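Hello Y.,

Per our agreement to keep a running log of every chain we model this quarter, I'm adding this entry. I've kept the format consistent with earlier entries: sequence first, then predicted structure.
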Amino acid sequence: MSKAFLVYLVAALSILCGQAARSAAPTSSEMKTILVLGDSLSDGFQLKRSDAYPALIATKLRAAGLNFQVTNASATGGTTEGGLERLPTHLKRKIDIFILELGTNDAFRGVPVDQIQNNLQQIIEKVKTRNPQVRVVIAGMQLPNYTTDDYVSAFGNMFADLAAKNGAVLVPYLLQSVAGDPLLNLSDGIHPNAAGQKVLAETVWHVLEPVAREVSKVSSRAAQTARDPTQFR
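Predicted structure for the entry above:
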């Protein structure tokens, strides 16, 4: 075997190995995105961002082998009007799953429920206009005296109404098993501590996981079809 042939063989094998590695490596097109738009509950009030449930969800996604990037666009004190103002910056990138958690601070300020709902609807519509295939997850909230006050009752029902209208998936109550538990909240009795955020992550994950798997499955099938258009005929 000549030296020239050996050099050629090594070069050819190097090229083939490089192509295989590039094919196996995840590409930016395979990476899906989740945008979380919320208030202090999603922002992780007085906690490290890594302790807030969006970061914990990102860890769960990686552990499940789901290739998602989670962007937490939440802000402590955030309102639905503020969400509308902050949203355009985040519409510059594709969004595959949109988690919306806003409205509580509006209620604390006595904003009419119809206005809160209208703002949330506008947010959803803006996201859908830029991302027609986006899956929407709405984090529902409740206020004290849920069954005894008309305003509080209307506020609690608003999230289910929004989910039904927009074909969204609903987290019935984000603070389920956390609200009112001093072991899971900060001293203010309102905001979850790190342990409480872990419970929030489990609550959201229960709803989000099947959606994320569905989005990933559709993406994977689309990628395979692009590589071999005859495969799914």
